[in-house]
Automatic annotation (TrEMBL):
It holds the Pfam family LysR_substrate. Keywords: DNA-binding, Transcription, Transcription regulation. PANTHER family: HTH-TYPE TRANSCRIPTIONAL REGULATOR, HTH-TYPE TRANSCRIPTIONAL REGULATOR CYSL. It comes from Nocardia lasii. Transmembrane segments: none annotated. Residues 8-65 form the HTH lysR-type domain. The keyword Metal-binding does not apply. Belongs to the LysR transcriptional regulatory family. This is LysR family transcriptional regulator. Gene3D superfamilies: Periplasmic binding protein-like II, Winged helix-like DNA-binding domain superfamily/Winged helix DNA-binding domain.
């Protein structure tokens, strides 16, 4: 249905409301970023279109006529309806936007996810991503329960019963405080020595803990922990005190290694001190759409980064990728 002849533009109705609120054409013009003559011309054009006098103009300001006040009431209703329309359209767009629920281990969430999401958003800015951060075991549980569409974990092997894809690998380093006896040693520390040493450990379920525990167990049963701490921040803080050595992701240890608040201890089996970053999903719902795009972007970036050589899965622990 075409608009009736003489229908005013929304912009000039908004200008009329500003004149009423501010009391002068000059003030209304400044609010709308136009000159006073331009504002006066637009109101005059509206008056001609409607065949009504809307303003009594005076040197001290502008006052609406009776007809102007009637038109003002309708203008406010029309503008309010337009605002409601714009808000509803925005909500509809938001509801229709592709959504992806992901869960990630702490290290991946802090150091890798931002880069992966930035790469995804470059080509697909419409995707809305919700991220939950837990340790690797908890991430796998969220994926199994359907509370996350996709998970990202670290560890020596894929979680049982889930599909997975190795995205890349991360170096692990042995670190101590500068006053620790190992800080000045010349011979590399062996896996047997590490296994016999009380280390600072993450809590059970951490991908870093599982990786280090499995590796040390190939040399000897690991000794009891100097402490079990629930975050890498706490591990780093405890290591700085000289309490005990820790085995950390190089991504996490890097700032302290640069400043000298932690010292890297050479390791005899440095090539084996790596852990894999994996994408995981329910076997019956492999990544599709935005989830598949995110996995591809992540794998591409990790391949470019090439921080470490990805070791093969050990016999008896095959990949569960479909």
């Amino acid at each position: 249905m075409p608009l009736p002849p003489g229908t005013p533009d929304l912009d000039v109705l908004d200008l009329l409301v500003s004149v009423a609120e501010l009391g002068s054409l000059g003030a209304a013009a400044r609010r709308h970023g136009i000159s006073q003559p331009a504002a006066s011309m637009r109101i005059s054009a509206l008056e001609r279109r409607l065949g009504l006098t809307l303003l009594d103009r005076a040197p001290t300001g502008s006052e609406l006529t009776d007809a102007g006040r009637t038109v003002l009431a309708h203008a406010r209703s029309v503008l309010a309806a337009v605002d409601a329309l714009v808000d509803d359209v925005a909500r509809l767009r938001s509801a229709d936007a592709p959504r992806l629920r992901i869960a990630a281990s702490k290290t991946i969430a802090d150091h890798r996810i931002p880069h992966w999401l930035a790469a995804l958003r470059t080509d697909h800015p419409e995707v809305v991503v919700a991220l939950e951060v837990e340790n690797s075991t908890q991430v796998a549980a969220l994926v199994r329960a359907g509370a996350a569409d996709l998970g990202f974990v670290e560890g020596p092997h894929p979680p049982t019963g889930l599909g997975s894809r190795v995205l890349g690998a991360d170096d692990l380093v042995v670190v101590v405080a500068p006053n620790h006896p190992w800080a000045h040693r010349h011979s590399p520390v062996t896996l047997t020595e590490l296994a016999a040493t009380a280390l600072l450990w993450r809590e059970p379920g951490s991908g870093t803990r599982d990786t280090v525990w499995d590796l040390l167990s190939t040399a000897a049963p690991p000794a009891g922990p100097a402490a079990e701490l629930g975050s890498t921040v706490a591990i780093v803080a405890a290591a700085r005190t000289g309490m005990a050595p820790a085995v950390l992701s190089r991504l996490i240890a890097a700032p302290d290694l640069v400043t000298g608040t932690l010292v890297e201890v050479p390791a005899a089996d440095a090539a084996r001190l790596t852990r894999k970053f994996r994408a995981i999903w329910r076997r019956n719902t492999p990544p599709a759409g935005t989830g598949e795009l995110l996995v591809r972007r992540a794998a591409r970036l990790e391949n470019v980064r090439g921080a470490a050589t990805i070791p093969p899965d050990r016999p008896g622990q095959p990949s569960t990728s479909p």
